[in-house]
Write a structure and sequence with these properties.
The complex is a heterodimer. Chain A is an all-alpha fold. Chain A is built from 12 helices and no strands. Chain B is built from 15 helices and no strands. The two termini of chain B are 38 Å apart. Classes of the chains: A mainly alpha, B mainly alpha. At the A-B interface, α2, α5, α6, α7 and α9 of A face α1, α3, α5, α8 and α9 of B.
Chain lengths: 266, 313
């Protein structure tokens, strides 16, 4: 059992699984179960990926996606933090606002996409709007909870010390809300990327989603490129989630939730 | 290092609660994250007011009162758009008349049924599959660990990006739409099941072993109930993703469904028709969520009750 739990064994097992999956991909493609024109070989896709990585087009597409995602995230998140904080600090505003926000959160974001497409067309604005709209509602709720979740002892201490206004906000409210906001941001980043790709795929805004679509429409010969673009999208997803998880660990190392994680890992 | 230690799994699981409990990503969290995982803010509010033993009449008045802002928004929309000549934002009155004509009197409803059929099949497969695979990955944790990089990568790819590839393989049709719904909606349930089961108190498992419970019985009586709040949170997130993918698949390639209706109205530049589709879709999305919350209250009644007692004491 010790051997099975050792670090190198686990690593080898993972690598073997990755290799097996890639092998299976190759086998399925070569055997033609899914249709030779519908499913490219793994080697063909990897070679195509290598070629694409050297072209400017791919990097332009990546940049377009990242730009739309980043701007949308920036707008959606900053407004969510402002609105969420305001609603969280006032009980009346909270009780009035929460039904509206809860309702809009359950509305599938995608419903608004056709409207954005007719208003802005296949453009960056359309993509930014969809991302911002999509991340706003869940993050707002997260921020409201963070602001309202001040530890009663901390709150009473702040009252005893007569902390008020900005000083109380920076010293008490913000630190206790920070982990909630961080969790919300990490999720918003992942959701935002999905929405950016959807906006490109359906709305036709330039970016990785559009590259996937055009390469599919170009016929079977461009199929390896389709899968190469899909892989790039996946890598972008990995990059985004790891980046935010890493930033959260670094910035919130002082918070007990992170401390617990650290001590559990040790 | 296991599945949940990966950045991907933490995306759906880590919550900033000090007690180390976890919740689904889109769900708001309060200090007691598990309650947050399983309830909406209004549920938590009503749980709190319930403890204060407010009479049902007063509760109705309170909940109606809390909708005032909602009403104000609708009234504002109605009057501000009343003589709107903007093509994109027709008067609310026209939209509602059209909504009545198309969706209540007309036959646009058939589009809705075809959408919901695909959604229902896809969601059931995703839900059952997610819980099953999650449980298997928990039971055989070494296998789970070995496949985690691959699972993580598939999970992180925005599912919409897979849509063109799946279309190339399966063609356009119901099976393609259901596949894409399953592929997207399975993840929250799977990861939450896995994480919920991993969070089982080791003492409880030891107790079950000391009582010589069979492993199947342990899963049914100890592990599954313990993980249930989180599984439900996962299922709810899956529901929302499922609805989105249902529409996305129809927007990209389909001859029926509500997404197709909206797209077709947009291409005809029938903006008012498009608006009715958007509103119906919004209502469907929130209706399904509220339906789910009702079911969740029944399924988790024991948990919410125990939780309320715990907090009172």
């Amino acid at each position: 059992m010790r051997v099975l739990d050792s670090r190198w064994f686990k690593l080898t097992a993972r690598l073997l699984v990755v290799a097996a999956v890639l092998g299976l991909w190759q086998y399925i493609a070569v055997s033609g179960v899914l249709g030779k024109d519908a499913f490219p070989t793994m080697t063909g896709t990897m070679a195509e990926l290598g070629r694409e990585l050297q072209t400017a087009d791919l990097w332009q597409a990546v940049w377009d996606t990242v730009r739309g995602w980043g701007l949308g995230l920036l707008i959606g998140c900053s407004s969510a933090i402002v609105v969420g904080t305001l609603l969280g600090l006032n009980r009346f505003a909270y009780l009035s606002g929460i039904p509206v926000i809860e309702f809009l959160k359950t509305v599938p974001v995608i419903a608004i996409l056709p409207l954005a497409i007719v208003v802005w067309g296949a453009s960056l604005e359309m993509k930014v709007f969809l991302v911002a709209f999509g991340v706003f509602w869940p993050l707002t709720i997260q921020v409201i909870y963070g602001v309202r979740a001040v530890d009663p002892v901390v709150r009473d201490t702040a009252i005893t010390l007569r902390l008020r206004g900005l000083r109380k906000f920076v010293g008490v409210t913000l630190p206790s809300a920070a982990p909630f906001i961080a969790t919300g941001l990490r999720i918003a980043a992942a959701v935002g990327l999905i929405l950016a790709v959807i906006a490109e795929l359906i709305g036709g805004a330039p970016g990785l989603g559009l590259s996937i679509l055009t390469s599919v429409n170009a016929g079977p010969s461009r199929l390896p490129a389709t899968y190469a673009f899909i892989l790039v999208t996946g890598i972008a997803g990995v990059a985004v989630t790891s980046l935010f998880a890493y930033a959260e660990r670094r910035l919130l190392h002082w918070h007990e939730s992170q401390r617990n994680t650290a001590s559990r890992a040790a | 290092m296991t599945m949940a230690d990966l950045p991907g799994a933490t995306t759906t699981t880590t919550e900033p609660s000090a007690d180390g409990r976890t919740a689904s990503p889109d769900v708001p969290s309060v200090a007691d994250a598990s309650v947050a995982a399983a309830t909406t803010p209004s549920q938590q509010f009503s749980a709190r007011s319930g403890r204060r033993a407010v009479s049902s009449l007063r509760r109705t008045v309170t909940s109606v009162w809390r909708l005032w802002f909602f009403a104000v928004i609708l009234v504002c929309w109605w009057f501000l758009s009343a003589d709107s000549t903007n093509t994109f934002f027709p008067p609310l009155k026209n939209i509602l008349t059209q909504l009545w004509d198309l969706w209540v009197l007309g036959d646009a409803r058939s589009q809705l049924w075809s959408s919901l059929e695909h959604f229902a099949v896809g969601y059931v497969i995703a839900g059952v599959g997610g819980v099953l695979i999650g449980a298997l990955l928990w039971k055989f944790h070494r296998v789970g660990d070995a496949v985690s990089p691959v699972l993580y990568f598939i999970y992180v790819i925005p599912t919409a990006a897979l849509l063109p590839a799946i279309m190339a393989i399966m063609g356009i049709g119901a099976s393609m739409q259901i596949t894409i719904i399953v592929l997207a909606a399975i993840w929250p349930t799977l990861l939450n099941t896995l994480d919920g089961m991993r969070g089982t108190d080791p003492i409880k498992i030891d107790t079950a072993r000391a009582m010589h419970l069979s492993s199947t019985r342990t899963v049914w009586t100890v592990v599954l109930p313990g993980a249930m709040p989180q599984i439900m949170a996962g299922l709810r997130h899956s529901l929302q993703i499922g609805v989105i993918m249902m529409v996305v698949s129809e927007l990209v390639a389909s001859e029926s469904g509500i997404g197709f209706f909206i797209l077709e109205a947009q291409q005809r530049f029938a903006i008012t028709d498009m608006w009715t589709g958007i509103i119906v879709l919004a209502l469907i999305g929130s209706l399904l969520t509220f339906l789910f919350i009702l079911i969740e209250r029944v399924v988790l009644a024991w948990y919410l009750g125990a939780r309320a007692v715990e907090q009172k004491g």
